[in-house]
Amino acid sequence: MPKFQPKTHAQIKRIFGLAKPLGCSQEDLRELAADVTGGRVERLSLLSYDEANAMIHRLGGEPLLTSRTPRRTVNYHRQQAGVQQIAQHGHTKLMHDLAAGRGISPEGLQNLCRRMLRGSSHPRTTAETNTIIEALKAMNARDARKAKEAA
After folding, report:
1. What does DSSP assign to residue 76?
2. Distance between CA 100 and CA 21 in Å, rounded?
3. CB-hemisphere CA count at 13 Å for 50?
4. CA-closest candidate to residue 63, choices 81, 48, 46
5. In whole angstroms, what is the distance from residue 123 CA to residue 136 CA?
6. Which of 65, 91, 98, 114 is the most exposed place for a label (fewest CB within 10 A)?
7. Which pTM was predicted?
8. Residue 104 has pLDDT above 90, yes or no
C-alpha cells in the first residue's frame, strides 16, 4: 500500500485562490472534495497530496509538481552523478557585469576565458562560469586591498 502523502499548505492556498473568483463557498469546496475523493473525505484538511492536486485541476488551475524532493538535493545528486549543468543566463550576466565593473571589454573577457578555459572563448557550463566569476572577484578583492593599503 503506498504511503499517504498529505496535502501541503501551498495546495490549500491555491485551492482557495482559484475558488474565490469562481464564487465557490466553503460548502461548494467540501462537495468538490467529496466528489474528487469518491466520498472518502468531506473536509479539505483530510485531502491527500494527489487529491488536492485533482481539486486544483478541477478548479481550472495548474497542479503542483508531484516531486517533493528539494531542488538543492536534486542539484547535489546531479553533481554526484557527474552531470554538467549548462551555464544559465543570470549566471553569465553576473560574469559580464563583474567584467564590465573592472573595465574589461567583451573582447578582453573572451581573452580571459581563452586563457582560463583552455581555448574556449566563453564558458559553456556552470563550473566554467564559476571559474571566471571567482577570478573576477579575486581581482576585485586584490584591487580593494591595494587601495586600502595605499590610503
Report:
1. H
2. 47
3. 5
4. 48
5. 14
6. 65
7. 0.53
8. yes
* CB neighbour class for 94 (10 Å; exposed up to 12, middle 13-18, buried from 19): middle
Q: Rounded to whole angstroms, what are the CA distances from 11 to 2, 41, 53, 60?
A: 20, 16, 7, 13
Cα dihedral 69→72→74→79 (10° resolution): -160
Asked whether 30 and 42 are in contact (CB, 8 A), the reply is yes
Q: Among candidates 43, 66, 52, which has minimal Cα distance to 12?
A: 52
- 1 confidence band (pLDDT: 50, 70, 90): very low
pLDDT-derived band at 146, boundaries 50, 70, 90: very high
- d(CA 39, CA 37) in angstroms, rounded, equals 5
pLDDT tens digits, 66-95: 666 788 888 889 889 988 889 999 999 999
DSSP string, 110-121: HHHHHHHTTT-S
